[in-house]
Amino acid sequence: TNDRTPAEFVNNDQKPLGFGRMLRKEDRRFVRGKGTFCDDVQLPGMLHLAILRSPVAHARIAGIDISAAEAHPKVKAVVTGAMLAERNLAWMPTLSNDVQAVLATDKVRFQGQEVAFVVAEDRYAARDALELIDIDYDILDPVIDARTALSPGAPVIRTDVPGKENNHCFDWETGDAEETAAVFASAEVVVSEDMVYPRVHPAPLETCGAVADYDRVDGRLTLWSTTQAPHAHRTLYALVAGIPEHKIRVISPDIGGGFGGKVPIYPGYICAIVASTITGRPVKWMEDRSENLTSTGFARDYIMRGEIAANRDGRILAIRTNVLADHGAFNGVATPVKYPAGFFGVFTGSYDLQAAHCKMTAVYTNKAPGGVAYACSFRITEAVYLIERMVSRLADELDLDAAELRLKNLLRPQQFPYRTKTGWVYDSGDYEPTMRKAMELAGYAELRREQAGRRARGELMGIGISFFTEAVGAGPRKDMDILGLGMADGCELRVHPTGTAVVRLAVQTQGQGHETTFAQIIAEELGIPPDDVDVVHGDTDQTPFGLGTYGSRSTPVSGAAAALAARKVRDKARLIASAMLEVSATDLEWRKGAFHVAGDPSTSVTIQDIAMRAHGSGDLPDGVEGGLEAQVCYNPENLTYPHGAYICVVDIDPDTAQVKVRRFIAVDDCGTQINPMIIDGQVHGGLTDGVGMALMEMMAFDEDGNCLTGSLMDYLLPTALEVPDWETGYTVTPSPHHPLGAKGIGECATVGSPPAIVNAVIDALRPLGVHAIDMPLTPSRVWDAMRGVPRPP
Ligand code: PCD
Q1: Span of the secretion signal (predicted)?
Q2: What is the DSSP string of 26-88?
Q3: N or C: which end of the chain has fewer CB within 10 A?
Q4: 6-35+488-634 has which CATH code?
């Protein structure tokens, strides 16, 4: 293997000190079972909290009797919404300026909603006591289908909002309606299609949970919680719960996967805090799998109508879409507040268009809240699906090759920075080589020949393509904030006297390997081994403020902050080196790890020598303080725009309608690569997500609003059995504004893969006259499509 262990990074010219394949430092702890996850936290005297959830989707609460539960010998407290209301804590703000019930007071609005909680001496007693709570529900008609949510006479869900008479959540529009209509009117070809991006769930391995420890003596709250954004959560707790911010410490320990689902603040966290304040004891709350699936943030749930306009020769002119968004009972979307539809505005994709327009309506339904960016920079997954389905649909209509049609319309390198018709400025891109590389890796021409042969024999083989541009790395802070908190990130770097270092970050790894890659960034910039750099994160007492890890923003934002902090340290080191070597600072040249006198490479001092001098007793140059450290708050100039070209090959069994992903070729471009091994892992994970969404995953509900996918027996996740050996490749187009040229990669494959798979299935079924099908492409749906049965609504 060419994956070096950290110790193999040595200071010589053969082996790079910074970027490159390197095994993950954190895995030393993880493979030995030495991680510390939320549920591993054990405090003396700790109590356990369990939440009672609504069994129905929509009902008025007529009465609650908690007396039997309170009488349970191991129960310390039973709390209802009414009791929270007395403390003004029954409702909390969501990240998108709506409110959400912590515990229901008036009504329950989705199955699984939090209604009461019990605190007991152990986990079992807490669960047992839930059964002793007696609640009287007056059942109301639920609103389950987003299409009927605005029908006259539909039951109103948000009766808590004064004057609210319907289930309208928001309207949103982008692009130019008139300009787009004009282009459509004069286009030679217009193709349209209806599509559903079903409700799915991030379903991380570790569910959500918290341990709250409120110290009544000095009024200090320590909260271990499964959060992707510890600093933002702390500020919001201070604003909502009224505990002063400096008295709150949020610790995000090891996290077993986030995938966007751990960005929101969930009622359970607040309940744990309340429980600790009223009992004076530490309190642990951990969800089980069903609670996680049924009550925490869902993703997608967009019903889209797409229209694409083109010339007969395949020149794409414009795209237009109408979206109906199902937001569930509360608008719990975690997105920069100016963007209620997230970054859906990038639905113009990777093509040079004359016009684009999107109109969206969002509604409330009696389903769990959310709209989280599950491995998706805020709704880009939906946007990429829309355009990539439409482009393949157009190829189908014009009888053109789907790869050639894309090549004809991709943006050209000289068009960057490129402003889209919806106002996004793509920083850099060189798309054609990426597409060509994917075609080459796939052996595209040969695959098409093979397909023709198989078709002639009646076999169902399909080749699907997608080309995507993602927008990752939110800020800049002038455009992007979450509840008023600007999206910039702090970083602190301290080099110790012996030349090892500690870097303190505002972002928090959930499995991405930050303890390795951020050490590599410092190593690259300072020329010290990555093993000599400790990465501290996930603890608000130990790290500078910043908005957290999601939207693949860690490398674009905090990665830039880390590089700039290291460069500040280097600038100071240069001054100290000039004193040590008694030459002017301008006569010094930096070569990884040391300053040399220009023209005399034998005279040099290493960064370790400089660190000792910086902390030592010797003289420092005038105006230079002792110590070797730096602090940066990085406000990105723009998002970074990674891109990729994906090709999927499927075979469909004509007798069972089972789809088999035979091959999947992914060529990604995330600019400068810090750790290609980790990048490969990120891509593998995202592609697996894509197979899950395309073929298996959907949160389903019956007409009463019962969630039908509350366990992993029904909510199907992909395993090694459903995925092929991934074939990955890369091109490198650096970001011009990022100090390292790096772009994010974490979500690219999840975003780019579903349309490639769906396009492949439709391509396979084309001889049967199939032009559209909705995810998940389960055997029964494919079977129906093969027999011309109309799609489910
Ligand atoms: N990188 C490199 N290079 C480049 C880029 C990147 O190397 N150029 C690497 C880094 O450093 C890291 C990774 O890779 O380590 C990633 O990164 P990014 O892209 O920056 O991202 P982040 O921020 O870090 O992360 C985040 C993401 C997300 S967002 C998601 S979903 C998912 C992903 O991440 N999640 C997860 N991936 C993952 N993995 C794991 N393991 N786990 C998890 O959980 Mo969202 O918004 O939240 O929905």
Answers
A1: none
A2: THHHHTTT---BGGG---TT-EEEEEEE-SSSSEEEEEEE-HHHHHSTTEEEEEEHHHHHHTT
A3: N
A4: 3.30.365.10
